[in-house]
């Protein structure tokens, strides 16, 4: 959450990922289901091109159900194993097991063809900060948290969590860096609260969110804030300030406070299940 991305950090994260790639067979890539495009870093395609990949659309409990299905289809069409998840809820993670097994099967078959036997499949979790990697590892592997420790052939310092017969998970997730060169990426990650607020002005951000919601989820703001009139985003923000009695100096409306309330409501799911990025139309 608090990682500020300077070029040095990105280089370091990338180098770490390259190192970890040598140790694993399967990447469990976490993306945020509310922003499946902006929370991904396509560099992973290159870094992990020899690896099996399972894309987990995490925080799907906060995203639009229809969009969830469309994104799921989209990733499957791209040739990935994909799954919707709410990592805070262990039962939703049960359906990951068969997919992991399926993704690993290819690898085992390949091993068998090469005469390699009884080698455990090794997996790692990867994703940008705040996407839910630690939560996922704790939920998925929490009970099985007996560390396998350092063994011959295992890079010193790396800890593996045994997840069952023949499957081990690296206990530290791979950190991917967001694609900040696209300004929309920074904006959307700020909207979901995954980069610090100071980077982007809350009021501006809230106006963009209002414009998006008016277009994609009509009625949602009117319902929550009991708005009376339609108008441009700034007018809507003014009405939110009015209905929530956001005042400064006694009687002046505070747009800043209203923007803060709106962003908090969105980030905590009080506005409902919302996806900020639409899935590309299924081809
Ligand atoms: P990391 O930086 O990728 O390791 O992310 P964390 O595991 O620290 O999670 C960041 C925040 O997202 C925490 O407040 C979690 O409780 C929350 N979180 C993680 N997974 C989910 C999920 O599937 N649904 C919801 N609603 N919140 C989640």
TrEMBL record:
Subcellular location, principal: cytoplasm
Presence of the UniProt keyword Nucleotide-binding in the record: yes
Binding of GTP, residues: 58-61, 130-135, 174
Any Pfam family: MMR_HSR1
InterPro entries: G_CP_dom, GTP-bd, GTP-bd_ortho_bundle_sf, GTP-bd_ribosome_bgen, GTPase_MTG1, P-loop_NTPase
Cited PROSITE patterns: G_CP
Molecular function terms, GO-annotated: GTP binding; GTPase activity
Origin: domain of life: Bacteria
Annotated family: Belongs to the TRAFAC class YlqF/YawG GTPase family. MTG1 subfamily.
Organism: Wansuia hejianensis
Biological process terms in GO annotation: translation
Name of protein: Ribosome biogenesis GTPase A
This protein's GO CC annotations: cytoplasm
Residue span(s) of domain CP-type G: 14-178
Compartments where located: Cytoplasm
SUPFAM superfamilies, per the entry: P-loop containing nucleoside triphosphate hydrolases
């Amino acid at each position: 959450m608090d990682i500020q991305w300077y070029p040095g950090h990105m280089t370091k994260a990338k180098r770490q990922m390259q190192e970890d790639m040598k140790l694993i067979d399967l990447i469990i890539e976490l993306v945020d289901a509310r922003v499946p495009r902006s929370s991904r870093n396509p560099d992973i395609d290159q870094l992990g091109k020899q690896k099996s990949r399972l894309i987990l659309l995490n925080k799907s409990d906060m995203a639009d159900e229809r969009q969830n299905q469309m994104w799921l289809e989209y990733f499957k069409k791209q040739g990935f194993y994909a799954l919707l998840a709410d990592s805070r809820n262990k039962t939703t993670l049960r359906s990951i097991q068969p997919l992991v097994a399926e993704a690993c099967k290819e690898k085992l078959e390949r091993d068998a063809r090469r005469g390699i036997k009884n080698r455990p499949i090794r997996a790692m979790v990867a994703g940008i900060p705040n996407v839910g990697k630690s939560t996922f590892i704790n939920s998925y592997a929490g009970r099985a948290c007996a560390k396998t420790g350092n063994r011959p052939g295992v890079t010193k310092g790396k800890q593996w969590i045994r997840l069952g017969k023949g499957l081990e998970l690296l206990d530290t997730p791979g950190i991917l860096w967001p694609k900040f060169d696209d300004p929309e990426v920074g904006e959307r990650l700020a909207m979901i609260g995954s980069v610090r607020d100071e980077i982007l002005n809350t009021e501006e951000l809230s106006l963009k969110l209002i414009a998006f919601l008016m277009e994609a989820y009509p009625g949602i703001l009117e319902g929550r804030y009991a708005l009376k009139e339609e108008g441009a985003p700034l007018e809507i923000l003014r009405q939110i300030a009015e209905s929530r009695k956001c005042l400064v100096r006694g009687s002046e409306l505070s747009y800043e406070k209203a923007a803060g309330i709106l962003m908090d409501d969105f980030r905590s799911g009080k506005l409902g299940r919302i996806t900020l990025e639409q899935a590309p139309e299924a081809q």
